[in-house]
Amino acid sequence: AVQSSGDFWTQMRNIKRMVEEERPAVVNMSFGWEVKTFRAANEASADRHLKAMRDYGAVVIASAGNESKDVDGRKCVFDHCYEDRLVIPCESRYAICVGGTNADNAWLHDGSNHGTAGGSRSVQIYAPFCVFTLVNPASDTIDATKWTCGTSFSAPFVAGAAALVKAADPSLGPTEIWDILRETANVGGLHFDHYIPTGVVAHSMHPGWARTQGVRTSLPRFDRVMRPLLRTPQQGADTIVWLAAATEPGQSTGAFWFDRRPVPTHLVSSTRETASDRENLWERLALLTESDINLTADLTG
């Protein structure tokens, strides 16, 4: 453990110094910083610090944050989209970023940040968001507990699993440990994974505004004004054809795609549905179709 005061970069330098001197197998970082300016420079600096830790042999675990946001959230102006926030160390390619799940199922917890882009610069794995902690850890006589929540508790779950893997085989390096964690983790979390049989995924997409026959005849004024910015029908069809043919979309489910990338489905976090909303919708659909669906059944077989 490193107790450090000061700004984010002071903490990063202190942790890197500790890793260089002590050579721990696992480093847990239950903190983060949302970068608002000089994104490229800050991202490159975080990568340098975290790569150094990994090169010293440490698996670096980071918490995703507790704002109920998509760390890969993107803003779009017409057909131009860009990621509008950067959270470090979570989004460094040299850290394993951990989000939070509910205590009793594999659904994303409403309070946890999450990722939709996939890859090494997103939220990569999930663990329990809420745990029991001691009311007063410093007391030798009082053992009362309380329910405490946050990805600051999710990340140590994964860090502990990484430490157990390392203890079982000390010859394993950071990349090999992460491969084992990823390959042995239960599938679940973000969208409808809990209800989708293995091998079957469901996605939606937006083609962007394309100059199709329907646009030309139904919205002639819009067509005249926006013609220089409109896509061709072939460009509009690109993502849906790619979704059907590529392997990457098969690694997740329930995403909303634009230009071959997942994009946010909500303009503001307050419109995001809860796990209860999703279960209520599923039960309603089952009732309307007169189906007897057990939400806890194993749908894989």
Description:
The structure is a single chain. The C terminus is likely disordered. A hairpin with a 2-residue loop joins strand 4 and strand 5. It is globular, with a radius of gyration of 22 Å. Helix content is 34%, strand content 17%. The strands form 5 sheets. The protein has a 4-stranded parallel β-sheet with strand order 1-3-7-8, with helices on both faces. Helix 3 packs across helix 4. It starts with 7 loop residues before the first helix and ends in a 13-residue tail after the last helix. By secondary structure, the chain is α/β, with parallel strands linked by helices.
What are its keywords?
alpha/beta; four-stranded parallel β-sheet; disordered C terminus; three-stranded mixed β-sheet; 34% helix; 17% strand; 301 residues
List the helices and strands and how they pair.
Blueprint: H1 8-22, E1 26-29, E2 33-35, H2 39-55, E3 59-63, E4 74-77, E5 80-83, E6 86-88, E7 96-101, E8 123-128, E9 130-134, E10 145-149, H3 151-168, H4 174-184, E11 204-205, H5 213-218, H6 220-226, H7 233-245, E12 256-258, E13 261-262, H8 275-288
| N-to-C series of helices and strands | HEEHEEEEEEEEHHEHHHEEH
Number of helix segments? Answer: 8
Shape: globular
- What is Rg? 22 Å
Rounded mean pLDDT score: 82
The number of E-state strands comes to 13
Strand order of the largest sheet: 1-3-7-8
Largest sheet descriptor: 4 strands, parallel
Q: Considering DSSP H and I runs of 4 or more, what fraction of the residues is helical?
A: 25-40%
Q: Could you list the spans in which at least 5 consecutive residues all have pLDDT below 50?
A: 188-198, 295-301
Structural class: alpha/beta
* Euclidean distance between termini CA atoms: 45 Å
Taken as a percent bin, the fraction of beta residues is 15-25%
